[in-house]
Amino acid sequence: MLKHEQYDVAIVGGGIGGLMAAFRLKESAAGLHICLIEKGAPLERRKCPLIAKTARTCVRCPSCAIMEGLAGAGAFSDGKYVISTEYGGWLTEFLSPETVLDYIEQADRILVSFGATTQRFQPSDTLKKLCLQHDLHMSQAQLKHLGTDSNFDTMRHMVESLRDQCEIETHTTVTDVDREAHIVHLRGREGERSITAKHIIFAVGRVGSGFFSNWCEKNGVELSNNQVDVGVRVELPSSIWEDFSRQIYEPKIWYRSKQYGDTTRMFCFNDRGSVVAENTAGVLTVNGHSYRDEARKTQNSNFALLSTIRFTQPFRQPIEYARHVASLANLISGGSVLVQRLGDLENGRRTDESRLAQSTTRPTLDAVPGDLSLCMPKRQLDNIVETLHALDSIAPGSANYDTLLYGVECKYYSARPAAEDFELAGCRNIYAVGDGAGFTRSLSQAAANGLYVADKILGRNV
Ligand SMILES: Cc1cc2nc3c(=O)[nH]c(=O)nc-3n(C[C@H](O)[C@H](O)[C@H](O)COP(=O)(O)OP(=O)(O)OC[C@H]3O[C@@H](n4cnc5c(N)ncnc54)[C@H](O)[C@@H]3O)c2cc1C
Predict the structure, then answer these.
(1) Ligand 1, atom 45: nearest CA belongs to which residue?
(2) Which atom of ligand 1 is the closest one to the Cα of 70?
(3) pTM of the entire structure?
(4) How far is the CA of 224 from the centre of ligand 1 (A)?
(5) How many CA atoms lie within 13 A of 376 on its CB side?
(6) For 70-109, what is each residue's pLDDT tens digit?
(7) Which end of the chain is more exposed for a tag (fewer CB within 10 A), N or C?
(8) Is residue 38 lining ligand 1, measured as CB closer than 6 Å?
């Protein structure tokens, strides 16, 4: 229960963006009264039945432990920390690349002080050249791999250190914010109440983007968004990509398909990892994890292969579109996610239990064998198959018959609010940071964004 009724700063959302903002504010101005409000559970109580292996399929918990709770969507993430501005978000549309990189480095130093590894993977010009020779384009970045388990520990140490300095309220949802009076309305286990704060930071992540967009619309803050990425999670034996993963850890490669001229991206690579299902507001999609702990590693690697769709007028609901595609996969799999062998897909037949049993690639997720062509639009599926064959030329075996495709994976980008230096248009001292505001799509940029806005509140970077 929050102790006060008035705060200097209220932070909505306890993901890496919100936590970094709280950390910087307390580190620099110990006297400030700060509260951080998180709708999900404390970190140590976040238990996904699928990860804990107490359920075989997603049981659709009222609050998804993967996406919500202290440490946000990053809590069970692979903890790949991108030290580059080449990908991971759009902060360079607002700040110089040097400033963004400087903040990413600052956030990294904070994470290291809480136990994150100092080991960095360097980009490889040789591999980039190999890709170019096959009309594939690889993004270059320094990268750290915290690993799901040690990333979790790092965030736990950070939250523990903050608890002494800032009031953290979990299981409490911010339901509204009065933009003039700065009243923050909360709903928690004890019912409804409100507080006031001089400064308010929305750091609600992808899971809170619907709430945040509605709030912006209600309060006259203009929004823009027209992009969504839809595709599959690819799983194959880890040896196929090990020439890349050993050198750069995470290959991020994009390809322009010959058939449609669309961009398809390979990213979110998990070496010797597992495929997981995640529940985003009631719709099941797929994702991937990998652990540093040798005992939890698998024989397979997985990555996202998603085709980018940019809608034009009059359609303005890219997220709803992706959710419909993913819901179809949920529908035909009886409330789960689908898995299909590439060879079966190309031969126009369903993967069933007996065909899956013959697969030399053993699935790491208990998904329902089926037919992706029944739920994914032809254009995206064609792009994915064409891209897999292009990838096969640099990592032979990528387009094997038994390459497993799980569907559907989507990356939604939250609608972006009109803002001046992250202060929402027409809303004095109300800011937005991170994935929920469509400014970022990675741990490093969300962290950098949180630190930057905290500095802005402190009057440091004006
Ligand atoms: C499975 C998975 C793996 C990933 N792996 C990586 C990776 O390896 N590397 C990488 O860079 N990125 C990864 N990402 C993306 C990364 O996690 C996000 O970019 C990052 O967490 C964004 O941080 P954020 O603070 O903006 O939002 P989030 O981390 O999403 O945090 C937002 C928080 O706000 C809370 N919230 C929302 N609405 C409200 C409300 N109304 N009231 C109170 N609280 C609210 C939510 O419960 C959530 O905890 C991964 C994401 C997922 C889901």
Answers:
(1) 13
(2) 49
(3) 0.82
(4) 20
(5) 30
(6) 999 988 877 889 999 988 999 999 999 999 999 999 999 9
(7) C
(8) yes
